[in-house]
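Protocol step 4 of 5: obtain the predicted structure for the target chain.
Materials: sequence only (see below). No template structures provided, no constraints applied. The aim of this step is simply to have a reference model before the mutagenesis design in step 5. Sequence pasted as it appears in the construct record:
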Amino acid sequence: MIKKVQLPLQTLNLVLGFMVWVILSSLLPFIKEDIAIAPEKLALVTAIPVILGSILRIPLGYYANLIGARKVFLISFVLLIPPVYYISIANSLTDLLIGGLFLGIGGAVFSVGVTSLPKYYPKEKHGFVNGIYGAGNFGTAISTFAAPVLASKFGWSLTVQFYLIILAIFIVINFFLGDKQEKKVKAPLLKQIKGVYKNVTMWQLCLFYFITFGSFVAFTIYLPNFLVMNFGLEKVDAGLRTAGFIVTATLMRPVGGWLADRFHPLKLLMFVFAGFTISAILLSFAPSMTWYTAGCLTIAICAGIGNGVIFKLVPTLFSKQAGVVNGIVSAMGGLGGFFPPLILSTLFNLTGHYAIGFMALSEVALASLVLVIWMYYKDKLGLANQVISHTTEGIMITDHKGKIISVNPAFTKLTGYEGEEVLGKNPNLLKSGMQDNRFYQEMWSEIERKGSWQGEIWNRRKDGKNYLEWLTISAVKNEAGEIVQYAGMFSDITEYRKEV
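Step 4 output (structure tokens):
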């Protein structure tokens, strides 16, 4: 029973964490009426919670493996009570910055569930499960929409204190329903980091999540104030529209995970970053409210799907270091939400518009698209190389002039020659002398006519012993129809021939 409730429980935990994480950005239009905040400091106030919310994801992901999700969520919610109360009585910019920094704990709990929940499900469901958990992003929508409504009736200070009650309730729920028997993974943090920090694939995933989740966070904290200032919307209306962005991205996250369970994740990311590129270009032209809405919603869809896809890839590629890799990747995503609002604010102060910032997003997304395409074809090539390396048949590849350029381990096993002994040489070093020149002339004549040849041939091993092999030679042509390589595949049939 306890294990069955972990997915809904931890998802609700994330909802609460994200609700707390965006308190300041949700209530900033109200807060700045009581606390004097210079225009150039507004972006800093909304971005500051992202700092700790990003950095802490690494240790929280690690400790979720070490001591279990139950304890990490409990400790996190207890630690959130002081900063939430401190913000409710804040009366200066400094108070907001200090309290906001520690609100980051709410965003950091993300790495707890994505580390813990895959333990309860088979691999083929990891994408969908992490997608469901990631839908806890919905917490930002709840705060963005509900907090302004409550603040209109009760004031922003009392609204913040409502969060204290919810935190207390969830502390009790986690104490009783959290899984005390969760499987623990005890490996030193530094050892895990050393095992992955040189892994190129992990840093590529970091870049992708920097864009997908970073854009989600950035738009969440930037839209409420932007819509009020740039389009003159009412504060509640701006909150409702921002909530629409958040809900769209949130609903798309489990969809992305579900799709990644069924289709190649890298193919899905191609569509994601193509959508980002086009939408960001549209936003850079400062369009009307209608087109601006279309661009933002497209980014919401791409961000949600991308987030789900990426956290299908993490546990699949890094099962043994899932905790720390989840932490690192999600930390980079959090930082992706910290810098854009500050950059957009600075660019607006310098140029009077946001065009350059959105154009920069489109360029980074385009670069990511190119990288994903490269990774996809590299992955296909790597799979082909694995097949060649592990096949029991000997494989030898030559250039069009007949010089050996590649052999596989089975070639060495069958012939006795190491790769370095034959590379650059002609395959005739394997000749046994048992076939005359006419045999070889007919063989190559058939290859030229048909593109391949197949049959029995006697060859000689390095130790001088002859053996009978079944050989297939195929001509490899380029798009122009020119032969660029020859591929030979063979197996030893000497013993089989004796039995026959």
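Step 4 remarks: The chain has two domains: 6-387, 393-499. The domain at 6-387 is CATH 1.20.1250.20 (Growth Hormone; Chain: A;).
Proceed to step 5.
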